[in-house]
């Protein structure tokens, strides 16, 4: 297919969901442990067309080292299984890992479009002054800006776009048959829900988005964007809507909006800033495009905006 990764071992999916029945998705989950992120390759078994959801670019902050190790393993899996990725889907502009969307686009055949919700433009406007971006920084970044409730096909599969704001204003979910890719809105029942204190985030809005997910049929399955497994439980990626309704620790059936907002706001007030916040945002709001190398050193630099002041003596 693209023949550049023959020496790189294909990553074995952490789990595979689906039996290959025509018209239903075959879902391959790939766990990235450093950022506790789930990545998904969703394949139409009849045509082998697929979408890739929330791929991760490896980044080590202390050394400033970028790596495509995780992405290359998935690319080899795609090639070995003759899968044709037709879209790369972002659920939102992540603040906890760097997206590998541009790297996948550069390696996959067919100029695969990178897709995100239309409200990414609001997120870009919020963070452009933080990182010193002008309007030109966002040219030729995302390829498709998805509309609320938009529907498109991947082979014989139908994908429906859900607007799920609250964690971030641009946040989307994707419904494919009975699978719902929820990103950072709802997590597994013993983890609960995502934070809602980022710019444009809102606990009331997040509760509404979670309620939208809870209203789906009970046999639908929620595939989450992260897992922070408590205790000795191993990482998992999926549970049914029925399980969410019955036992989600933050928003099970019977939870009032008032109590959710009180808990979520109090919890968010004591959470630390995500470890990769600034590297992630300045890359992810540009669809994974890295800054241009310095003209003198040839090195790529990311910015860390400082707060506070130190008086000189």
Which properties best describe this structure?
313 residues; alpha+beta; Metallo-beta-lactamase, Chain A
General description of the model:
The chain is an alpha+beta fold. The protein has one domain (15-269): Metallo-beta-lactamase, Chain A (4-Layer Sandwich). 23% of the residues lie in helices and 23% in strands. A seven-stranded mixed beta sheet has the order 1-2-3-4-7-9-10. α4 packs across α6.
Topology:
Blueprint: E1 15-17, E2 26-32, E3 37-43, E4 49-53, E5 56-60, E6 65-67, H1 69-80, E7 84-89, E8 98-99, H2 101-107, E9 114-117, H3 120-131, E10 144-146, E11 151-154, E12 157-163, E13 172-176, E14 179-183, H4 203-214, E15 221-224, E16 238-240, H5 241-247, H6 257-270, H7 277-284
Parallel strand pairs: 4-7, 7-9, 9-10, 14-15
Antiparallel strand pairs: 1-2, 2-3, 3-4, 5-6, 5-8, 11-12, 12-13, 13-14, 15-16
| CATH architecture type | 4-Layer Sandwich
State the shape.
Answer: globular
Q: What is the radius of gyration? A: 19 Å
CATH superfamily heading = Ribonuclease Z/Hydroxyacylglutathione hydrolase-like
Helix content: 10-25%
**Strand fraction band?**
15-25%
Mean of all residue-level pLDDT scores: 96
Total of domains:
1
Unreliable residue runs = none
**What is the ordering of alpha helices and beta strands?**
EEEEEEHEEHEHEEEEEHEEHHH
CATH class: Alpha Beta
Taking strands numbered 1, 2, ... along the chain, how are they ordered across the largest sheet? 1-2-3-4-7-9-10
CATH topology: Metallo-beta-lactamase, Chain A
The end-to-end distance, rounded to whole angstroms, is: 63 Å
Give the structural class.
Answer: alpha+beta
